[in-house]
Design a protein that fits this description.
single chain, five-stranded mixed sheet, 27 helices, disordered N terminus
Length: 632
């Protein structure tokens, strides 16, 4: 009977099948584009709401070198020791240099300096908004690829991404980790997950699948795109290689994976060929870019690993317990969805029991293996930060999606979460509303209120400079400008804060706004755990060890006002030392300075550094008010 039915049934012809397929494909493209537009709008609001300071790398490892790329060595950009020792790739700041270049060449010549400054400050935010949107979008598209187009689980991934308070707090910041996350999400989407195994194709006599993996140029090009994006992510942050080593190891060993292996000899040859070609292309491009930037041949990823791992120099900036990523990293990264992430990690080990397709269950296992290997490997490095595991967020959200879906909706089991969103029914809504409220409070406070003063203070100083020195707002600095020796000796702002505690030239903008801040270069030339390294004290630590003594050494000359600052910036804890120094009976009495508080701002409910406790304050010295008149 079955053979008779098979012989009489007619397969749909290409003519009758193509219009339906084309219509579905067009609808999918339109839906995806509309979703991307909505995501970008949400992230743009997100970027506008983020007005707080998180960590220095947001500015000093991206925007400062980008600023120097466009505006030159005399632009006032602050290049940290990492750039002087060539441990950072120039590819990431080059992205933001492009934004500065656009403002300079298409807006700069025809607009007023103040307006130009605002555009220069906004350009990186706009670019990063685009990258954050792509990260969200590709995480959602990957979820659709694994769970089904239009599935509840896939849509829950998008909602988790947009409502994650950590994402709201960091996604639109110019961290290399954020760009790395975008590249990783894109590479995972284009990755051919069928490499991990396919369904039984009926060929019982062979352990290999006959499903074609690289039968078309489209399949090969998507694989190439995945490899290129992954390679850029690795060059940007060398630790990203752990993700691809984990996936590659499972692909080759097939440990715990189900289905038939697609790794025939021809497929393996294609994989090796494309890895070699794509890797060589990206490596060559990186070498040329760094040769252009540094002026000599260098390979920053290798130097990065040597300095931070072999020399353990990253420990100079803090050390954490071995369990940091387990006890703090994942909970901070995932917040209210942490229980569902943990359940997803556990359940994925037996994903085939949930009736997923073989490709999906193998992909979930690979993502879990990636999480385990990354957490385990990075836990051996003494210096740990939550943002170092940010590229794992797409995996966390995808693994959590079925379980958060079944917990809050009428979907009764994990496998059924592939149902379309139209069948959705809510449950446990009070708990869901409470979780969303917690996310909103955390994300809102951290993004808008916590540590906002460091960004506000540079905005204040820039505005003051525009008022006091309206003739010195040129950017870049004119080469034929008439020398003004009285102006050139003015130090506009002195920052007595922990090093890199505020944005720098990316927000101060004007090259003529001369400022000085405490430095904190690590002891690069010392051996790990050596006596020299333990005894080393950078400039910031020396200041906070003996504030009055440091101020005495800062102005050692007998000439009153030598390199005196117009404004001194510091947390309120340094106020007593400043007043003692400038007191008529103090060591700085010769300057005839009378400190006057002209600006202050609250800096949040808590701090991770007691040196940043209290309000951030700007004191005016008044020295230049009578030495140099204000420009008309």
């Amino acid at each position: 009977m079955s053979s008779g039915k098979k012989s009489t049934a007619k397969a749909p012809t290409v003519a009758t099948r193509s219009p339906l397929k084309s219509r579905v494909a067009i609808l999918a493209i339109v839906e995806a584009r509309e979703a991307l537009a909505v995501i970008f709008a949400v992230r743009l609001v997100n970027a506008l709401c983020v007005r707080t300071f998180f960590q220095p790398d947001e500015y000093f490892q991206a925007l400062e070198p980008a600023w120097r790329m466009v505006f030159g060595e005399d632009s006032g950009a602050w290049l940290t020791w990492e750039w002087q020792h060539q441990i950072r790739s120039s590819l990431h700041p080059a992205v933001f240099a492009f934004g500065y270049w656009l403002v300079e060449n298409f807006f700069g010549p025809g607009i007023a300096p103040k307006a130009k400054a605002k555009w220069l400050i906004a350009a990186p935010k706009i670019l990063q908004t685009g990258f954050a949107s792509l990260s969200d979008w590709y995480s959602w598209r990957l979820a659709e690829k694994l769970y089904g187009h239009g599935s509840v689980a896939a849509w829950s991934v998008l909602l988790m991404t947009l409502l994650n308070p950590w994402q709201w707090y960091t996604a639109t910041r110019t961290f290399s980790n954020c760009f790395e996350t975008t590249l990783t999400a894109m590479a995972l989407y284009y990755w051919p997950w069928e490499l991990l195994g396919t369904e039984d194709d009926g060929n019982a006599g062979s352990k290999y699948s006959t499903v074609p993996l690289f039968g078309t140029w489209n399949q090969i090009n998507r694989f190439r795109l995945s490899l290129v994006l992954a390679a850029f992510a690795v060059l940007l942050r060398p630790t990203n290689i752990l993700i691809w080593l984990a996936i590659g190891t499972l692909t080759l060993t097939r440990a715990t994976l189900g289905g038939k292996s697609p790794l025939t000899r021809s497929n393996l040859l294609v994989i090796y060929r494309e890895v070699l070609l794509c890797g060589s292309f990206v490596l060559g491009l990186s070498l040329l870019a760094d040769r252009q930037y540094y002026g000599e041949w260098t390979f920053p990823p290798l130097t990065f690993l040597h300095v931070n791992v072999a020399q353990d120099l990253a420990a100079f900036y803090g050390q954490n317990d071995w369990h940091y990523y387990l006890s703090q990293g994942i909970p901070l990264l995932c917040t209210t969805i942490t229980p569902f992430v943990l359940k997803g990690l556990f359940k994925s080990l037996d994903a085939e029991k949930s009736n997923w397709p073989v490709t999906t269950s193998n992909a979930l296992k690979a993502l879990t293996f990636t999480v385990f290997t990354n957490i385990a490997s990075l836990s051996f490095v003494s210096h740990k930060e939550v943002r170092f595991i940010t590229p794992l967020l797409p995996a966390f959200h995808i693994l959590a999606a079925p379980h958060i879906t079944s917990f809050f909706t009428s979907v009764s089991d994990v496998a059924a979460s592939a149902r379309p969103a139209s069948t959705l029914g809510w449950k446990r809504t009070p708990l869901l509303a409470g979780g969303l409220l917690v996310n909103a409070v955390i994300g809102g406070y951290l993004s808008y209120f916590h540590a906002a003063a460091p960004v506000q203070v540079v905005d204040f100083l820039r505005a003051e400079f525009e008022t006091v020195h309206p003739k010195h707002l040129a950017l870049p600095r004119p080469t034929n400008a008439t020398a003004d020796h009285d102006f050139e000796q003015e130090l506009f702002a002195l920052f007595l804060t922990p090093c890199h505690a505020t944005p720098w030239r990316s927000h101060l903008v004007y090259p003529d706004l001369r400022a000085r801040a405490l430095a904190c270069e690590p002891p690069v030339d010392t051996a790990p755990k050596s006596l020299e390294r333990r005894a080393y004290r950078d400039e910031t630590r020396r200041f906070f060890d003996d504030q009055l003594g440091f101020l005495r050494d800062l102005w050692p000359g007998d000439r009153p006002g030598e390199d005196m600052a117009r404004y001194v910036v510091g947390y309120e804890g340094v106020g007593p030392a400043l007043r003692r120094y400038f007191d008529p009976a103090g060591p700085g009495a010769r300057h005839k300075v009378q400190l006057r508080e002209v600006w202050s701002a609250w800096n949040g409910l808590f701090t991770d550094d007691e040196r940043k406790a209290g309000r951030l304050v700007v004191w005016a010295t008044g020295y230049y008010d009578y030495v140099l008149p204000v420009e008309p």
